[in-house]
Structure formats: structure tokens, C-alpha cells
Amino acid sequence: MPAHSPLAYDVFVADPIAQNVTDLVPNGDRRMFSPLSVTLVHGDQDAVLVDPPLTSAQAEAVGDWVEATGKNLTHIFATHGHGDHWFTAGVLAERFGARVVASAGTIAEMHRNVSLRPHFWDKLFPGQIPDAPVTAVTVPGNRLTLEGHDLIIVEVGHSDTDETSVLHVPDLELVVAGDVIYNGVHQYLAESRDGGRDAWREAITVVEGLRPRRIVTGHKNKELDDDAARAVAETRLYLDTTDELLGKHEDALGFFHAMLERFPERLNPGALWGGAVALYA
Fold this sequence. Notes:
Layout: E1 8-14, E2 17-18, E3 32-33, E4 36-42, E5 46-50, H1 56-69, E6 72-77, H2 89-96, E7 99-101, H3 104-116, H4 121-124, E8 143-146, E9 149-157, E10 164-169, E11 174-176, H5 196-209, E12 214-216, H6 228-246, H7 252-262, H8 269-279
Parallel strand pairs: 5-6, 6-7, 11-12
Antiparallel strand pairs: 1-4, 2-3, 4-5, 8-9, 9-10, 10-11
Pfam family, one: Lactamase_B
Protein name: MBL fold metallo-hydrolase
């Protein structure tokens, strides 16, 4: 076997799940959580999992998917601290004997999300999320090695939350981008006030500077491909349109409907509505 066996990647997209919320979205939809993308970067024998999902049921499905590959899972990486990208890391780490890793900033945000669990996550998904102590550790130089290939953790600052990062796989011309980039799903805007969207644009520019051909986004429409240029352009357009329409509408409902008119094909308008309410609070 050559010293550097070829790498590949696969993506598991967990379908949207219902939130424990009785109020409907203004367009009549039930409140749902966006689809979640889980990425497996692998060589001949070993693999690294990026952004394990939210619920125990999702983790079981992802675990069975990983097991079916026959790969040895060495690490589980979380791009950022939102619980939907790491709350099942411990369950999967125990199942496969893997190590959970993240940037220092993400680890701090993980602790913040644990403190929010009783008031937010567990209310939305009662009884569905496993115990999730923060077990992630940093790695020297923010760098992992997979069968001789570098996997580089790139910290990009604020995107749809603070202290986010991406995983750059140069030999695949791939970035696993978490929530820095979106792909066919309404973007989470609730934490984008007070300069947050400008910071998010800076994070997008960092990702663009890595010159990927493919980007796996944390929330994607599974019918869409991973074309990097398209996903970057569409994510940036969504933020620019947000700024434009915030200046034209005096309330959350007007903004929501205007955004829906601009982006009718994006999945999960409930995510847009949640952001609209926060932006106009």
C-alpha cells in the first residue's frame, strides 16, 4: 500500500425533524429543525467524522452508516458549538473508540450550549438528546493526519454563531464548512445582529481563500451537489439580501415574507422565521 492512500468523502444528511412547538410558521409550516449534514472523510482503513448530529436516533443511524463502511473511526470533529453539530459526539466516540476534537474557541462554545440545554435544546427535543458532557480536546497546530494526509482545522471567527471553524482537506480540494456556508437551506440569522453579518462575510472570505472545489455545508438540501463556488455565492447573497430587506421592512413578518419571495426554493422557512423574530426583537 502506498504511504499516502487516496482520500474520499461521503455525506449523511439527516432529514428535518419536528420541534416541540405548537405555533406554526407564518406561512403555515410546522416548526422543524433543518436537515443536518454529517461528513465522513476516509482513506483505505481510517476515517474522521465531522459534525455528529443532534438526537440519539440520528446518532444511531449515523453510527450504522459509519459501521457499514468498515472504516476505523479515529476522530470526531465539531466545527462549532451549536448542539446540533456535536451533542451526540460522546455516544459515537464510545461506540467507535474515537477521540472528539475541536478548536479551543469551539470548546468554549460547547460549554455555553450545555448551559443552554434545559432552556432551549431540551425544550425543543424533549427526551431525544443524549447526555453530552464536553469531552472535546484541541489538537497540536489544529491539524489531524489521516493516512498521511493533512486535515486542517481553520478557525474563522463568527459565522452563524461565535468561534466557528472549518475542516480543510487540501488533497480533496474540500472544505467541510459547518454553518459558515449553507446549501439550499434558510440560514440561521438569530445571532447575526451587531455586526454579525459582516463578520460572517469575513468568515466566508476565509473559506473562499482556501480555494475548495467542493464544500460540504452543515445544513444542505440533499438534492444539491457540493459545488463550492455556487454555495459560497448563494450564502453571501442571502446575507446581502438580509441587509437589503431589513432596511425596507419595519417588522419581522414583512421581512419574513420578503425573504421567502426572494428564496422560495430554500428548505425550512421556520429557521428564517426564528431569525426574523430575533432580528426585530
